[in-house]
Write a structure and sequence with these properties.
The complex is a heterodimer.
Chain A: E1 2-9, E2 12-19, H1 24-31, E3 50-53, E4 56-59, H2 65-68, E5 72-74, H3 83-95, H4 104-117, H5 123-130, H6 140-150
Parallel strand pairs in A: 1-5
Antiparallel strand pairs in A: 1-2, 3-4, 3-5
Helix pairs in contact in A: 3-4, 3-6
Chain B: E1 11-17, E2 21-29, E3 38-45, E4 51-55, H1 64-76, E5 83-87, H2 92-95, H3 105-132, E6 139-142, E7 145-148, E8 153-156, H4 161-164, H5 195-198, E9 215-221, E10 228-233, H6 235-238, E11 245-249, E12 261-266, H7 269-275, E13 280-284, H8 293-303, E14 310-315, H9 318-324, E15 327-335, E16 347-353, E17 356-361, H10 366-377, E18 384-388, H11 402-413, E19 419-422, H12 425-430, E20 438-446, E21 452-464, E22 467-468, E23 486-494, H13 508-526, H14 530-538, H15 555-569, E24 585-594, E25 597-609, E26 612-623, H16 631-650, E27 657-658, E28 661-662, E29 681-686, H17 704-716
Helix pairs in contact in B: 1-3, 10-11, 13-14, 13-17, 14-15, 16-17
Classes of the chains: A alpha+beta, B alpha+beta.
């Protein structure tokens, strides 16, 4: 049941041998030794494992490698190669969004996906797009502010977002 | 209030190491710090004038890897840009206390780490004075450069390494420290030192440890805490190539000659996780099956009817005073067990080789982990080498070291190969060390002037033989007990099979809710608002009594934050006019003192429909002493704690048990608060008072929970007395 699958990860073609139902998350972490994509719940509930599949945010713990084969995959390690991802990462760093940092790869990719489809999101659209990603440290005010900054929207104070 | 004091046994030694690097090793023995034997620190100044500072404490997102080195760098008088932070090993014999818990790192390290930096600078200045043939007093420093103003000479610290290494160590207690006005690093916002790595996905966390030939282990744990393995059959999986071993292990929670878990080991975690269902295990769990959430609630409801068997505090004649009171108020409060739900599931990696263990531990408390792991393996604690990883959320869960104890046994089962044990989310939620549930029956009495003259609480939580189990205690000095003339605080401790532990602001996260909500009821009965009742009850500025060795509440500092938050929020009581669509709105107040920190908070809410509360804004005023060391991180800690507290109140968080077994499976059953429920604004102010700086990880969390419940009361007229708040 192990088969070779051809993936395009961060613009680089790679071939992995894995069972077709092995989640992309575990292919990235175990086969490709790319630990940036995080395991949080294994059920698509927390968003820690978010990657982009053809620019769209997906939960890699719920995406079998067979379904990812042939598609463009963007992980946190390659997020800066996208202009939107680059702006998001820069804003995240400037505002110092992370606390423990564990959820932030998923947050950054969800935010990048949002800006890909909606360059100037409203506050409600930001909350809606990001509500699949849990931050246990509750960095939510800074996540909102960093997305606004990356989108070129008016900045808010450090108390608000 | 007493801050941890230093005795006079500190020393610093300078030496030359490879490549002409000047190394300073400092050692302090602490006189008074709770549980602390010593503090050590190291600084290295490289030939290129790069300053490497060892970060010794576990980083769980509280910002300690950034903050402790700031203290050294400030007094060493180097530029923050030239500093490189290096994580030390966990080795309490070298580095002393290495714990992320109790908001203790700031009070414990504030003075000694600055002294380390100052002493190292003094050695360099002496060396420069000798080399240049000038008086040390004629020299100044700036950004890692020694300056002789009279002659215009300047040279980097590294230029004096050889000379400095030959000089005697200065007396740490006599080195001069900067006046706060001269600080260039302390008090300046410094982003987290790991942020650039986090936002680009670099391996940092325990789960990211990846070693050549590493195996993976998935856990099969007894469904009931405390149950033990009767028998198991792993033949179905051992025949497959995906599984190399199934190892019976002991989590440390059951008797040492028993097992309460199995580890399924193989080359892929995803494969061994799936293989678990083909392992048959029979558990001895008859005794544990008797415990349930419903059973606890019934026992607690019965207990509060009668007298409390355990006395916590007694003053005056409470029954007599209640009989004579003009008004009495009685109410029952409760809160559930809580898991921690760290987003990085519990994990640990270990390698067993030639009778020694090397371990990569995301632990908040690796020193205790060393002792427990060595005891379980029957080896010397010195035979463990412990690497500290960044930690994907602590919140107190990782003060417990079950994952270290367990992975060590797995590693011994596959000698010579590293193995990583990883919990899945269900393992993590069902094998936590939970914040214990609790129940309170309060009665208060007011005299004719509306003053609080009698106060009574029958507290019910969990314990054995009249003693609380871990984190299930209540202080006999909970405010307002020390200031009311007639008081009785008593307790009943029920049995449970569950493992319990510390959750961020332990005990305070629950006591803040019940005491400040009940006092809000008392204030209502007295015709006051809670801030005003607090002012009258706190009285003149003084320190209130506390348990021996525990921080004392200073009523003046409490008053300070209460007044500050009322000013910030323009507090006029809890009533607010309805929203544009007629929505009910309201405000609530809460104060709490914990972990040496004072916080008062105001929450403003809107009912967007009959059963949905939106938190619009929170104001937080804090007093943690004379100096905020890293302002950006301080604000982040407060805002995160406030949102966490809101989540404990309204997100539906609880852990329940049926027939001994925890029911929660995943985040749908433990719904951590998400961004769409976070307030739009959290205003934070710190009062700078003339007290030593203290910690911030915890004290801002407790007040927001009662403030929110009190706001709901003000908006809707309904008093909620049980967490999580639900609308039936």
């Amino acid at each position: 049941m192990t088969k070779p699958y051809q993936l395009v990860v961060n613009a680089k073609p790679v071939t992995v041998s894995a069972p077709g139902d092995k989640p992309l998350l575990w292919v990235l972490r175990e086969e490709l030794h790319m630990p940036g994509t995080k395991f949080g719940c294994g059920a698509g509930l927390c968003g820690a494992c978010t990657v982009l599949l053809n620019g769209q945010a997906v939960r890699s713990c719920q995406t079998p490698v067979s379904a990812a084969a042939g598609h463009r995959i963007t992980t946190i390690e390659g997020a800066k190669a996208l202009p939107q991802g680059n702006r998001i990462v820069a804003a995240w760093q400037e505002i110092d969004v992370p606390q423990c940092g564990y959820c932030q790869a998923g947050q950054i990719l969800s935010a990048t996906s949002l800006l890909l489809v909606n360059p100037h999101p409203s506050d409600a659209e930001i909350d809606s797009a990001m509500s699949g990603n849990i931050c246990r440290c509750s960095t939510y005010l800074r996540i909102r502010r960093a997305i606004r900054k990356a989108a070129g929207l008016a900045d808010v104070t450090e108390d608000a977002a | 209030m007493s801050a941890p004091a230093l005795n006079r046994r500190g020393f610093i030694a300078a030496s030359l190491v490879a490549g002409g690097t000047l190394a300073f090793d400092a050692h302090f023995a602490l006189a008074e710090a709770p549980g602390a034997a010593a503090i050590n620190a190291f600084i290295r100044i490289g030939a290129d004038n790069t300053v490497t500072i060892g970060a010794k404490n576990p980083e769980i997102g509280q910002g300690i890897r950034t903050m402790l080195p700031m203290l050294i760098a400030e007094e060493l008088d180097v530029s923050w840009d030239q500093v490189v932070i290096e994580q030390t090993l966990a080795n309490e014999k070298i580095y002393g206390r290495q714990t992320a818990g109790g908001s203790t790192a700031t009070p414990v390290n504030w003075l000694p780490l600055r002294q380390v930096g100052a002493a190292a600078r003094a050695v360099i200045l002496s060396a420069a004075a000798k080399v240049w043939g000038v008086e040390p007093a004629s020299l100044t420093t700036q950004a890692g450069v020694v300056i002789h103003a009279a002659s215009g000479r300047r040279a980097p610290y590294a230029a004096f390494a050889r000379e400095a290494a030959t000089l005697p160590a200065p007396d740490l207690d006599k080195v001069a420290l900067k006046s706060p006005a001269a600080f260039t690093i302390i008090g300046q916002s410094k982003p987290g030192v790991d942020t650039p790595k986090i936002v680009t996905g670099k391996p940092l966390f325990g789960i990211d440890v990846d070693l050549p030939g590493m195996l993976h282990a998935a856990l099969i744990k007894a469904p009931c805490h405390g149950a033990t393995l009767a028998s198991h059959d792993a033949s179905a999986v051992l025949a497959t190539k995906g599984v190399v071993a199934v190892v019976p292990i002991n989590s440390g929670f059951v008797a040492k000659d028993k097992f309460d878990a199995l580890a399924v080991v193989g080359p892929s975690w995803w494969s061994v996780k799936n293989a678990r269902e083909h392992v048959k295990a029979v558990w001895d769990d008859t005794a544990q099956k008797a415990f349930s959430t419903a059973g606890y609630a019934k026992a607690a409801a019965e207990a509060v009817q009668g007298p409390a068997p355990v006395e916590l505090f007694k003053a005056g004649d409470v029954e007599g005073a209640l009989k004579g009171a003009t008004k009495t108020i009685t109410a029952d409060y409760s809160y559930p067990f809580l898991a921690h739900g760290t987003l990085e599931p519990q994990n640990c990696t270990a390698l067993w080789q030639e009778g020694k263990l090397e371990i990569w531990a995301p632990s908040q408390n690796p020193g205790a982990g060393r002792t427990e792991t060595a005891a379980m393996l029957g080896i010397s604690p010195d035979d463990l080498t412990i690497h500290m990883t960044r930690i994907g959320g602590g919140f107190g869960r990782r003060l417990m070291n079950d994952y270290m104890v367990m992975v060590a046994q797995v590693a011994r089962g596959v000698p010579g190969r590293p193995v990583k044990l990883l919990f899945d989310r269900t393992d993590d939620l069902r094998n936590d060390y939970y914040r214990p549930a609790g129940w309170h029956r309060f009665t208060a009495g007011l005299d004719a002037q509306g003053a609080l003259v009698a106060f009574k609480d029958h507290f019910v939580s969990f314990g054995k033989d009249g003693k609380p189990i871990r984190a299930a205690e209540m202080s006999g000095y909970e405010f307002p007990a020390p200031v009311v003339p007639h008081v009785h605080l008593g307790a009943t401790f029920l049995p449970t099979n569950l493992a319990t532990g510390w959750l961020r602001a332990p005990t305070s996260n629950a006591m803040g809710f019940v005491f400040q909500c009940f006092l809000d009821e008392v204030a209502e009965a007295a015709g006051l608002d809670l801030p005003e009742l607090m002012r009258r009850t706190l009285g003149a500025p003084r320190e209130l009594p506390a348990e021996k060795g525990r921080p004392q509440l200073h009523t003046g500092r409490a008053r300070g934050v209460i007044d500050a938050v009322c000013r910030m929020a323009h507090w006029q009581g809890g009533a607010l006019p309805p929203g544009p669509q007629g929505e009910k709105r309201g405000r609530g107040f809460g104060f709490y003192f914990s972990h040496r920190g004072y916080f008062a908070e105001v929450v403003e809410i809107t009912f967007t429909d009959a059963t949905t509360v939106r938190v619009d804004k929170v104001w937080a005023a804090g007093d943690i002493g004379s100096q905020i060391i890293n302002p950006i991180n301080a604000r982040h800690q407060v805002q995160g704690a406030v949102i966490e507290g809101i989540g404990q109140a309204i997100a539906g968080l609880k852990i329940e048990q049926v027939d001994g077994v925890i029911t929660a499976e995943n985040f749908q059953d433990f719904p951590l608060l998400r961004i769409d429920a976070a307030p739009r604004e959290i205003a934070v102010e710190f009062l700078k008072t003339d007290f030593p700086p203290t910690g911030l990880g915890e004290p801002s969390l407790p007040p927001v929970i009662p403030a929110l419940a009190n706001a709901i009361r003000a908006a809707s007229g309904v008093r909620h007395r049980s967490l999580p708040l639900v609308w039936a």
